[in-house]
Write a structure and sequence with these properties.
There is one protein chain. The protein has 171 residues and is mainly alpha-helical. Helix 1 crosses helix 3, helix 4 runs antiparallel to helix 5 and helix 5 crosses helix 8. The N and C termini lie far apart (66 Å).
Length: 171
């Protein structure tokens, strides 16, 4: 039996090597927990591997990867909330509260406050904020990932920044 990799396996290994850290942090910002982020990242790459042959190049490869990671994160959060029998807002609060005891989090009080502010946003505003602020993506690429217009993304980002600023500057 040969241990030689197929071109698809080599391509996939390259994708994992090139994108695992960026996708991990994108997922982690959405699901908060390190362990959950690892699980979602693994699910993301499983889905990527299963669909790699079908990628037609109609969008940039990394926007395709981010769309899969975003969708996997949202699906994970919905399932977690359902399993815990709580709503999305309660789940986001619980995730932020758990951040303080997370051994992989070494942030200070201001970073906890920022995370609380981000988690208080409606889901769409949160997604837009995370991609624009942390990933520094142009609206055109965020539009592809979230499958919505650039105009609505700009409005969502503007509202998110205002809400976060108000939240963080409150006493």
């Amino acid at each position: 039996m040969s241990s030689r990799k197929t071109p698809l396996q080599e391509q996939f290994d390259g994708l994992v090597s090139d994108y695992k850290e960026r996708l991990y942090w994108h997922i982690r910002r959405m699901v908060i927990s390190h362990d959950d982020a690892d699980d979602v990242l693994q699910n993301t790459f499983i889905k990527v591997f299963k669909n790699l042959e079908n990628f037609k190049g109609e969008s940039k490869l990394y926007t395709w990867l981010y769309r899969i990671a975003t969708n996997e994160s949202l699906t994970f959060l919905k399932k977690k909330a359902r399993r815990l029998r709580i709503n999305d807002e309660q789940l986001q609060q619980q995730l932020t509260d758990n951040l303080r005891s997370d051994p992989y989090f070494d942030g200070d009080a201001l970073q906890i406050k920022l995370q609380n502010a981000i988690n208080s946003l409606p889901q769409r505003q949160k997604q837009v904020f995370l991609l624009k602020y942390y990933e520094e993506m142009p609206y055109s690429e965020i539009s592809t990932i979230l499958e919505t217009s650039e105009g609505s993304l700009k409005a969502s980002y503007h509202h998110a920044v205002k809400k976060i600023t108000k939240y963080v500057t409150q006493d």
